[in-house]
Amino acid sequence: ILEKVRKEFELRSKAGTPSQAADAQVGFLCEALGLMKYAPADPVLRGYVPKNLLLGELTRGGAIWALGHLHAGKSVEPLAKLMTERLTEPASAIPMEVYRVRHACAISLGRMQAKSQVEPMRKYLGNNIGGLDITSMAIRWSIHEITGETFPEPERPVVGAKAKWFLEQLD
């Protein structure tokens, strides 16, 4: 598995963006390495953390998620800082960091118990402590995992009822 992930990294670094199927496949392989806590994969997985859109969104997200499993309970400061940079990059950055990478970074920081990164996450979250977007929820989960702090329930969206749908409930 590791050799496939390594070869794909080298290939993508030279040739560019993978197909959607290849991106998904290597993303799942990265996740498998994390679930198996296969420590020799660490250097290869770290190669997917810096912003490089040619490496594939699913692969980068899977690699970052796997690093959270490899380092669960032990914050590795340089890695945690790099993940926080990916998570908190301003939306105005061109090109913008993909959301899947942001979510994976937040989840991994929580798993790693990266206490030093709580304040940057809290600052990025800002007043959006009750938002329903996935990034905000991932950050709240991460802060809760690290500090035990609880947050208010997310605001429920207002959904208007529509009539005359193709399929409707019978009375």
List keywords for this structure.
8 helices; globular; 57% helix; 171 residues; mainly alpha
Précis, in short:
By secondary structure, the chain is an all-alpha fold. The chain contains 8 helices and no strands.
Mean pLDDT: 90
Q: What amount of the residues lies in strands?
A: under 5%
Helix content: 55-70%
Backbone structural class: mainly alpha
Ends distance: 55 Å
Q: What are the low-pLDDT stretches, counting only 5+ consecutive residues below 50?
A: none
Shape: globular
Give the ordered list of helices and strands. Answer: HHHHHHHH
> What is the number of beta strands?
0
Q: Tell me the major beta sheet.
A: none
> What would you report as the Rg, rounded to the nearest angstrom?
18 Å
Number of H- or I-type helical stretches = 8
How would you portray this structure in words?
The protein has helices spanning 2-15, 20-35, 42-46, 57-70, 77-88, 99-112, 118-125, 134-147. The chain contains eight helices and no strands. The chain has 171 residues and is mostly helical. 57% of the residues lie in helices and 0% in strands. The mean pLDDT is 90.
Give a topology summary:
Layout: H1 2-15, H2 20-35, H3 42-46, H4 57-70, H5 77-88, H6 99-112, H7 118-125, H8 134-147
Helix pairs in contact: 1-2, 2-4, 4-6, 5-6, 6-8, 7-8
